[in-house]
Amino acid sequence: MYKRVLLKFSGEVLAGKRGDFFDFDVVERVAKEVVMLHKKGIQVVIVTGGGNIWRYRDNTGKGIPRVESDFLGMISTVMNSVVLQSALERLGVEARVLSALPVAEVAEPYVRRKGLKHLGEGHVLLCPGGTGRPFFTTDTAAAIRALELQCDVLLKATKVDGVYDSDPMKNKKAKKFQTISFDEVLERNLGVMDATSTALCREGKLPVVVFDWNKKGNLWAAVQGKKVGTLVHV
Q1: Is the separation of the CB atoms in 47 and 142 below 8 Å?
Q2: Which value, in Å, is the radius of gyration of the alpha carbons in the chain?
Q3: 224 pLDDT band (50/70/90 cuts)?
Q4: Residues 24 and 110: beta-carbon distance below 8 Å
């Protein structure tokens, strides 16, 4: 069983099927699943995307330069983390937001030692703000935080049940991998994570589990090291 995990959500997960910024039923479910892990003694770090609110590639025709657009995306991840923090604390679990993007009124600045201290004190840790710099994805931020905070695994919660050799939504004959190496992911240019985050995980020997968040029980199974989704490894 993994003892310290980084859980990476896309922003779209929090939007649910309604298309709003937040589906609070989904937010509540995310919080309850994290609380379940916490009660079992698992230390949890959370990184969310910001695509439910703002993402550069969805707004390229709006006249906003790439750098400013990326910062809007980082701000969106702070909003997502504060919403999740509130949901976790309503359920009785203390959570701390440590942001790479300075937002002093709602989050502490991200400092590695401070993050490790919070985890040691039994707090759930939320790390928004991406890397704090433009041109990097939240997948890259998740890989960096997982390595810095000495997590055992990066759990990537998605809408599909693993990694395929082609888009399973477009190709009914797409092949799912039970396990796959980082080298093969890079060689095949598979859309698991961007190349930077994939290379970081490979170099840090950090396993990644890609799994379907919508299927209940998958998160707990992934934390236990059971066969769920796709394991990406060195």
Answers
A1: yes
A2: 17
A3: very high
A4: no
What are 111's two structure tokens? 């400092």
Is 4-233 a CATH 3.40.1160.10 domain?
yes
84-112 b/e (C-beta count within 10 Å ≥ 16 → b)? bbebbeeeebebbbbbbbebeeebeebee
pLDDT band at 169 (very low <50, low <70, confident <90, very high): confident
At CA 150, angle to CA 7 and CA 111, rounded to 5? 85
User: For the chain, what percent of residues have pLDDT higher than 70?
Assistant: 100
Q: Contact at 8 Å (CB) between 221 and 228?
A: yes
How far apart are the C-alpha atoms of 116 and 211, rounded to whole Å? Answer: 26
Q: What is the DSSP string of 129-186?
A: STTSSTT--HHHHHHHHHHHTT-SEEEEEESSSSEESS-TTT-TTPPEESEEEHHHHH
Beta bridge partners of 126: 46, 97
Residue 212, classified by CB atoms within 10 Å of its CB into exposed (0-12), middle (13-18) or buried (19+), is middle
Q: What is the predicted pLDDT for the residue at 170? A: 87
pLDDT above 90: residue 168 = no
Nearest-angstrom CA–CA distance, 22 and 173: 34
